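for the writeup, i need someone to sanity check this before i put it in the appendix. the sequnce is what the collaborator sent (i think, or maybe the updated version? ugh). structure was predicted straight from it, no edits. if anything looks off just tell me and ill rerun, i have time this weekend
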Amino acid sequence: MFQSFDETSESGESASRVERLRASLAEVGVDGFLIPRADEHQGEYIAPSAARLAWATGFTGSAGMALVLPTSAAIFVDGRYTVQVRAQVDGGVFSYESSVDTPIGTYLREHAKGLRIGIDPWLHTLAEVASLREAMRDAGGELVSLKANPLDRVWQDRPLPPKGAVSAHPLEYVGRSGAEKLADIRAALTKAKADAVVLTDPSSIAWVFNIRGSDVPHTPLPLSFALIPAEGRASLFIDAEKLGEDARGALRELADIAPPDALEGALAKLSDGARIMLDPALAAERLHEVVDGAGGTVVEKPDPARLPRARKNAVEIEGSRRAHIRDGAAVTAFLAWLDAQAPGTVDEIGAAEALEGFRIRFGEADGMPVRDLSFDSISAAGPHAALPHYRVNRQSNRVLGEGEVYLIDSGAQFSDGTTDITRTVAIGDVPDEVKHKFTLVLKGMIAITLARFPVGTRGVDLDPLARGALWQAGCDYAHGTGHGIGSYLAVHEGPQSISKRGMAVLEEGMIVSDEPGYYREGAFGIRIENLILVRPAEPIPGGDLPMHGFETLTFAPIDRRLILADLMSPEERRWLDAYHAEVREKIGPRLSAEDRSWLEAATRPLGA
């Protein structure tokens, strides 16, 4: 299996660990210390050796930060984790703070007056440090960049850094050679009048050099850095023991290989009198310090690989289509299996394991084995479905009971594409109130799917479409509507998103999720998710501007039993019926006769 259901939180140890950390802080002359949920690459998935926030607090979510002060401590999380943080973190040690309502800068201004607050400059970005420095100046204190992480000094059983195998990713899946991509990076450097760039995001490095790794869970990343000059040979800073023969051969033509700890020296040597591009939202502050210390100038520009990586080429798009049909067949077979189980006979872990088994089976049948899941499945029954990022463990495991909804958010990594799909299904007969909210969520999902929008439209401009029906009913959800998706890379990929913060323009070839939701704490939760592809702009008869639209990539039935048809407009009903007809056409031939029969019934027209 690709996922574990063991509980990894250790909140019972946090009091003693925080006290040991405070003693370490006193030794280095600071009053407090910030512990981000981050590694040197600012990735969503981190290796066990970088799980400092979890070690100190017990919190295992994918975003958060803790602040340890001389006599108090606080942990900051967003709306996705307000329930989880209280379940995992000792409230006697840490106060619970909203990173939205009380950002860390606001908290520092109030609670760190006159103090010296330490940071590990490898774990905070340039932009983040600039904001923190401003907050500490306002507080009459000082932000102190430490040479060594004081938490690491007291983390006695800290795991070793990962040594996951790295392999070449074939041209048949990536569509463009590493040499072509490096040429584009160098062209971006010339345009920015920069002499070199440091790539710190392993997704960008994997994409540029056409390699994939296995250093972190569920995302095929090779933890590494790259230094690419405008002229001359690139350098890849990676543990050479990770490289397989195919990767060595592919990289030999593209870059020199050096160990990760050689990066600072190489960057300092190159920086003397030079202009070095760093992404202020991704690059570690420590790199800024190295460039400054060597007499160089930092050019703050976005990672030049990030946008072209997001705009999928024809080979990547066709691979994604294949991956989603394969994955949709597995999900559909799972839904048919689940519908045949009596309420109360399947639990959250059993359901997640069953879906993983279907994915493995369908991948093997298609000659494209599952390489991994794209994230730990969110397998959530009843009130657990109200936790947007719930992760079942053996202690929390719950039976799928009569009269509840079950939410399964899951995905897979295939060599030709990354998938992510959410379905919410009825277990027995559910109350009309649940159906009402489900229908509102579905209306929002359809609104995004059917959107036509002019060139230059951002995700933030489309986000209200998904929320409109919920807003009319006095409801909303506390997460984004959609995130970008990688190509056998990260399931959450920027810069594109459909959200209140989605400032990136949605461009042809980008893949985003479409996943509005509704969550009633302690009762139920609903989310429906398809992945959609930004189509080329096309003229509309009688219109003045060419318009982008979306192509749906995900195909699996949406539970008709949860839909109140009277709330749907004729256009929405037509879309759903047409979508289900396409599900039957694309998915049906891959199913057994029994499952095809189930699919026919599950996707019959809404009025039938």
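The longest strand covers residues 404-410. The domain at 167-305 is CATH 3.40.350.10 (Creatine Amidinohydrolase; Chain A, domain 1).
thx in advance!!
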